[in-house]
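the two lines:
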Amino acid sequence: MKHNFGAGPCILPQEVFQEAAKAVLDFNNTGLSILEISHRSKEFEEVVAETESLVRELLNVPENYSVLFLQGGASQQFAMIPMNLLPEGGKAAYLDTGVWASKAAKEAKNFGQIDIVASSKESNYTYVPKGFDIPLDATYFHYTSNNTIYGTEIFEKPQTTVPTIVDMSSDILSREINVAEFDLIYAGAQKNMGPAGVTLVIVKNDLLGKSGRSIPTIFNYQEHIKAGSMYNTPPVYSIFVSMLNLRWLKAKGGIKAIEQENIIKARTLYDEIERNTFFKGTAAVEDRSRMNITFVMDTPELEAEFLTLAKERNLIGIKGHRSVGGFRASVYNALGITSINALVDAMREFEESHK
Amino acid sequence: MKHNFGAGPCILPQEVFQEAAKAVLDFNNTGLSILEISHRSKEFEEVVAETESLVRELLNVPENYSVLFLQGGASQQFAMIPMNLLPEGGKAAYLDTGVWASKAAKEAKNFGQIDIVASSKESNYTYVPKGFDIPLDATYFHYTSNNTIYGTEIFEKPQTTVPTIVDMSSDILSREINVAEFDLIYAGAQKNMGPAGVTLVIVKNDLLGKSGRSIPTIFNYQEHIKAGSMYNTPPVYSIFVSMLNLRWLKAKGGIKAIEQENIIKARTLYDEIERNTFFKGTAAVEDRSRMNITFVMDTPELEAEFLTLAKERNLIGIKGHRSVGGFRASVYNALGITSINALVDAMREFEESHK
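prediction for all of em together
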């Protein structure tokens, strides 16, 4: 058995892979592959409807919010958000907690004035800035709730009366959130929602249509809402597999249940990192992510050796991002505690053999 | 056996479905699903490289052109093309041969002056306008080579010295083309290239970087070229299945071979439409498409009855688009002559039983 700690695209449940493979040969007993059915067929319209309904149920999305399945990943949202929301000459506030947060701000600069309210860049983003001011005349405030590369996570929405937009690409569906606190939530699917190729957007309807900009149809949230995520051919298979994965999550007991598992998984690994004399965490303890656990060695020369052991133990994808180094264990919903234990065992084995 | 005449997403070869399903369970003997592998893995980088190389080989793409795999479908290209190419205050020329051609022009109006050089809208797009002038001061000329809804196709590029952009979503890879005649070719994959979720763009490098516009990174062709279609997480599975399909096409003998099959398939069906006293074609004979064959009945009241027979004979997806009515048989690369014969047989059976 392989233990896939990859940062994304990432592990999904084995049951989902089984169903997903079956539908490529015969979708829903239609005698057709899911890859060849019309996106306008009754069968696929039901897939989209069920996927939306599962998102609404699992995240308890209020009725005055729309749920959209788009393309282009979070990176496309970096541009679509200001294109839809910022009036000409308008201003938005961004919190800089990493490369992705910083890219979001950079793209927004094409559309207006961008204030960086705080940044932890000077420490290579090892912590989340606190106690910053969000200008009250900003059209919106944007932040990234989980910083995949640096292993930090923001569990509480920063307090502000300014409409708040959050990139939850790598922690959505991993813990309970109050959607009503936010005005727009977006996430590339390829962590806890599904495979690559689809992007989830949850947007409060009355946030839209106010910027006065002329927006190309394909980039206009209101057009996608009107068309029920079917303005043009959607990424059929990515939505279908997301539906299977959301069904799995619901059957597991929903987000409340998975959050408890995620807490235990993260604690198990962080405990070992603290206990083991060869390893140390890189993120500030109070900001540690439950999804991406970053750690290094006191003796960096040994890191290659541990990677070799990890490979022998079928621990996949634990090499750290080049900008942090060391290791990163991404422990998304579908990764079981067995895999955490396998990693912990390898860390202990390494310690034993180097005493 | 089902005969899938759907307009897109559409039939792909059964061999492709078999391989595509296998990789969802175990990709390339990695012990991992294609849905959970990192897009930065060596294995997936090889997929992208092979897909590009197959496109280049099959279409004989010159070296000074880039081949990109993007998201958002042809509809996103409607906006990206003028965003990248049209200077502020610039002008582009569009030929109006249907709803999609018209939408392309409409979206471009967000970025500059758009001249419609000719339109067949007054006849519900049953023919392709000829003998129009393309203004020499246009930055580019845009047309749609195959009009899926109306069953018309433009086989010869209109003569002009103005850089020419073509939407080949529904006929790319179905017939030989000379890429060097064009400056940019684009196509949603979900007809002859692969499943929904990926868009092919073939662009002459020296067309780019001249508009003087500030373009969000995700919409900038040059950024995608620099990143080898990996600026952000690509639609992994859609690219993978496209690769399988392009391998199949190459093994069939490439485009020269498939074009011969497509000619025979189309001729067989058009011949029956002409011969059979109950049916008649809707498109002008000289502009008839080889991919989407549109036809109606002399007695429209009988159309529902023929649809019922078609369903009984496992002929899927032949109901015409609402704006044309009647029937549409989409006869893409993967649809074999057996399926054409099954449709012809049903048409003859219908004729016999109504004599």
